[in-house]
Amino acid sequence: MEHIDTIIIGAGVIGLAIARALADVDHEVLILEAGPAIGTVTSSRNSGVIHAGVYYKPGSLKARLCIEGRDRLYAYAAERGIMNKRCGKLIVATAADQISVLKDWQMNAEQCGLTGLKMLTPVDVKKIEPEVFCTAALLVPMTGIIDVHGYLLALLGDAEARGATLALHAPVVSGACSGDGFLLDVGGTAQMQISCRRLINAAGLGAQTFSHSLQGLDPATIPPLIMAKGNYFSLSGKSPFQRLIYPLPVLGSSGLHATMDLGGQVRFGPDVEWVDHIDYHVDPARQTAFEEAVRRYWPALPKGMLQPDYAGVRPKVMRGSPHDSDFIIQDESTHQVPGLINLYGIESPGLTSSLALANEVRSRFKN
């Protein structure tokens, strides 16, 4: 039976960022990924946005790690030549009674340490985004977009260059806590048993399932998994916007916003569909609801210009918007299992926070 110093379950953006951080301090690191490639689940099924950190509760992990992670991510992208664009975004109020809410978000963002935010009038907005209707808008210049696949490859390349190893088609079926570490049963194409001294559960949508299979971990420490499916529709034709356009947040998400990729393709989403299983099919019948939502801030949207694009499933721990709950990083102080870190509810802004979150995990190990 092989022994590895540190095992990370999950090769999404969080698992790879952690592998890079731990391998950098001479840990022997093995990444176990159930799928056929890196980042095929949550990491590749989101908006690809680098968030500024507007929505999160001051003092929360999300607030701290988003702002720190945002700055680290822009710097890392520049260092590694990863395509990105600091395009900025507008958070828009579309009714008079929403203006006070928008001002509350500005205050919240400033309490979190954001600078450079600017409240705009409808006249101001027309000068920079003539297609957008609003009663007021908050300009957030630090928001951007990034080539997620390029970022994943860079993280993996750094981790492997520092000695980490990736195993694909390697689902962790079960495990057990022992006095000096962990024993894992790995399935897939090369079934085996493997032991380790440190274990990081970064399995995303599978994090709770693995934790329930880990003998010696108190089930009472495992939060529920609440799955929120988010559908996206793409726009045919040229983008009407220069920036990302966000309505005010709604239950379950940051609102059905307009984002774009680095090629200029505009997508609208995600909406919120509470599900009990993973299904990435986008129902074309949702188009009407999408059109109605988008026309609140883009009244000129032509009929029939939206097509089903893709969907993702967010690993939430409660029903609510991303700012209603915090990241959960459980270490020995929570579950009393030395050497184990469990990550739950790593939804938005997980991508933005990933480098800072990886450093946070590294700091939780005593040696």
In short:
With 367 residues, the chain is an alpha/beta fold. 27% of the residues lie in helices and 28% in strands. It has two domains: 2-47 and 149-223 and 324-364, FAD/NAD(P)-binding domain; 89-141 and 226-316, D-Amino Acid Oxidase, subunit A, domain 2 (D-Amino Acid Oxidase, Chain A, domain 2, 2-Layer Sandwich).
Write a structural description.
This protein is an alpha/beta fold and 367 residues long. It folds into two domains: 2-47 and 149-223 and 324-364, FAD/NAD(P)-binding domain (3-Layer(bba) Sandwich); 89-141 and 226-316, 2-Layer Sandwich (D-Amino Acid Oxidase, Chain A, domain 2). The protein has helices spanning 13-23, 61-80, 99-111, 122-128, 148-161, 207-213, 287-294, 332-335, 350-364; strands at 2-9, 29-32, 49-50, 84-85, 89-93, 118-120, 136-140, 144-146, 165-167, 172-178, 181-186, 192-201, 214-215, 226-235, 244-247, 257-260, 266-269, 273-275, 306-316, 328-330, 340-344. Strand 16 and strand 17 form a beta hairpin. The chain is elongated. The protein starts with a strand and ends with a helix.
